[in-house]
């Protein structure tokens, strides 16, 4: 049976919630698909932030930073692919209970996403009008961080609260830096936060696979 794109999105988002709420029980196909999806999403956004920060560095540091960003992204992509392949051989979830709700359809997720998208242009316009264009990127990072708070209940995972706090702290501290340092610090800093946020997922899944 073939799944349509919308059905695939719902299935993988439900798998992601299943992974975030799983205990130390044996891994199932849903757990592994959820781990693969979560790692993939984090890796993509970390790659975007990391490239943005790396390209803002001077030539010598730029290539080193780019190499590190690409290397870590490659490792995460490998892990996501590994978990996805292992899911094909893992047992299906037991029980007949209703699947967890699609987190992308929850009010918390929708409100946080809409608020973030609305806040971007509003903040940019206000800062530009006040002559503080140099503060736009730090404020953008803070806004992105605040949006993660809505994901705590949507995905039932407190790690998003840590990510939110780290993003907001990074954005706030960067306002104290010279303007020319903000882009590399924010770009690479956000990438590191996302990498650290996904490490527990990767290590826990790998450990359970080896049991």
Automatic annotation (TrEMBL):
The regions listed as transmembrane in this protein's record are 32-51, 63-81, 111-129, 135-152, 159-179, 185-203
Q: Does the keyword Membrane apply?
A: yes
- This chain's protein is named Uncharacterized protein
The entry's keywords: Membrane, Transmembrane, Transmembrane helix
């Amino acid at each position: 049976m073939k799944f349509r794109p919308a059905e695939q999105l719902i299935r993988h988002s439900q798998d992601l919630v299943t992974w975030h709420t799983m205990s130390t029980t044996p891994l199932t196909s849903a757990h592994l698909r959820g781990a693969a999806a979560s790692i993939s999403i984090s890796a993509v956004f970390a790659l975007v932030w990391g490239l943005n920060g790396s390209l803002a560095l001077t030539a010598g540091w730029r290539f080193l930073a780019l190499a590190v960003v690409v290397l870590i992204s490659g490792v995460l992509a490998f892990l996501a692919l590994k978990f996805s392949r292992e899911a094909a051989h893992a047992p299906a979830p037991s029980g007949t209970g209703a699947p967890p709700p699609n987190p992308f359809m929850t009010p918390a997720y929708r409100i946080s996403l809409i608020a973030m998208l609305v806040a971007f242009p509003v903040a940019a316009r206000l800062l530009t009008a006040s002559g503080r264009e140099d503060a736009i990127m730090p404020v953008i990072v803070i806004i992105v961080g605040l949006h993660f708070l809505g994901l705590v209940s949507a995905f039932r995972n407190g790690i998003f609260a840590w990510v939110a706090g780290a993003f907001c702290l990074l954005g706030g501290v960067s306002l104290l830096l010279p303007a020319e340092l903000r882009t590399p610090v924010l770009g690479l800093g956000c990438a590191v936060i996302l990498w650290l946020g996904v490490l527990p997922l990767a290590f826990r899944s790998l450990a359970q696979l080896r049991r």
